[in-house]
Amino acid sequence: RKEVEQDPGPFNVPEGATVAFNCTYSNSASQSFFWYRQDCRKEPKLLMSVYSSGNEDGRFTAQLNRASQYISLLIRDSKLSDSATYLCVGNTGGFKTIFGAGTRLFVKA
Amino acid sequence: DADVTQTPRNRITKTGKRIMLECSQTKGHDRMYWYRQDPGLGLRLIYYSFDVKDINKGEISDGYSVSRQAQAKFSLSLESAIPNQTALYFCATSDPGQPNQPQHFGDGTRLSIL
Description:
The structure holds two protein chains of two kinds.
Chain A: E1 4-6, E2 11-14, E3 19-25, E4 32-38, E5 45-50, E6 54-57, E7 60-65, E8 70-75, E9 84-91, E10 97-99, E11 103-108
Parallel strand pairs in A: 2-11
Antiparallel strand pairs in A: 1-3, 3-8, 4-5, 4-9, 6-7, 7-8, 9-10, 9-11
Chain B: E1 4-7, E2 10-13, E3 19-25, E4 31-38, E5 42-51, E6 54-57, E7 65-70, E8 73-78, E9 87-94, E10 104-105, E11 109-113
Parallel strand pairs in B: 2-11
Antiparallel strand pairs in B: 1-3, 3-8, 4-5, 4-9, 5-6, 7-8, 9-10, 9-11
């Protein structure tokens, strides 16, 4: 079992829709989590850090459920420009950073 | 200018050749990392360095070596390239601290081994 697992998708949604991604992690020692956005053939870019139960930044909300060991990312009012791959990342401290394989999102007009 | 710069951006070479990928950063971060990304597998850690005198293997270090020439520079070498090392390579940096700080990535190097 992978340490960080994501539904690869793709998720195809219309503009304006709300979409949610889930990510599960197996290492209960994981301390902090991040969501990155990656455009095709580009570098991952930090979208949100999730240190406690959750975080909100504009249209994006991340939630952490330590009891069930999952992190979610909610995108409201989807834009065409939100089309990308979203990477879930867990960190147990030190170098131990594990990246999920990513969830692809396509937002269509 | 980019905070984390990788060179070259693209490279095509032949099996058996020695290749060096370079990474430099202006973020002043102590920690630097090298990853490779393959379709469907996500990012996998090759080597990491927490300071100039600290080099550690990641999960897939076989066939690779690194050099931390200065706080700002971290190079990855493939001593004798093989086709299954064809991938997208990323360098990343981070600050130490609690809670754990996110990593910041360079633009990537697309490497093809023929």
